[in-house]
Amino acid sequence: LVFVLSSAIIVYRLPWTWKCSKLLMKFIHAGLNTIAMILAIVSMVAVFEYHNAKNIPNMYSLHSWIGLTALIFYSLQLFLGFAVFLLPFAPVHLRALLMPIHVYSGLTIFATVIATALMGITEKLIFSLKNPAYSAFPPEATLVNCLGVLLVIFGSLILWMASRPHWKRPLEENTKVLRPIGGTPEGTEVESTMTNSSNVDKSDLRISTEAARKQNLKFDEAGQRSTM
Q1: Domain, as residue range, for 80
Q2: Residue 132, preceding bond cis, omega within 30 degrees?
Q3: Domain-embedded: residue 183
Q4: Suppose 23 and one of 69, 79, 178, 188 were both cysteines; which one would form an S-S bond, judging by CB atoms 3.0 to 4.6 Å apart?
């Protein structure tokens, strides 16, 4: 969940993907999130089955509370992402309104997943290491502690990439979207507005030119009459 979710987060932030169509990147983003969700559900079922087989109580630790909460909100995030941003039914103004919330909630869920992993490996060390105990700092404790530090560094890099403006997909690329089946491409309103405004400018120019031409004809007629 940590690594697949992080790949889904930064898929828009990689410069070599900026030349790809926005629709293709949406499908890749949704596919990676779906894979991460499936793996998270499988692991959750495995945990409950293991606890039941070993007569271990379920949902008593902070690790389990935060982990289940992250999974529930992640499923909601995935569902709303499909419904609003992938399917061609939501209006553009609704997408623009929900996009900052979608990005913020995705980053928050990712940070929560990192915290859940850190609590999980610490809990496992406390329960598993008996002789020597975790407090004796055996080699296993050193290995897992280093793994936790690497997780923190990895998560910080992903959040840094996702929050820096220069890693953001260029705006001009966002308007070049392939038309989804049965839908309208993003940026249509902008393009139509620009077309309408350009048409208005052209029509105003034609009106002004026509008025100037008629005025010149009147001047010419007046000059001819005076000459006669």
Answers
A1: 1-167
A2: yes
A3: no
A4: 178
Q: Look over the chain and give the mean of its residue pLDDT values, rounded to a whole number.
A: 81
Q: What average pLDDT does range 210-221 have in this prediction?
A: 51
For residue range 179-199, list pLDDT tens digits in order. Answer: 444 444 444 433 344 444 444
Q: How many domains are contained in the chain?
A: 1
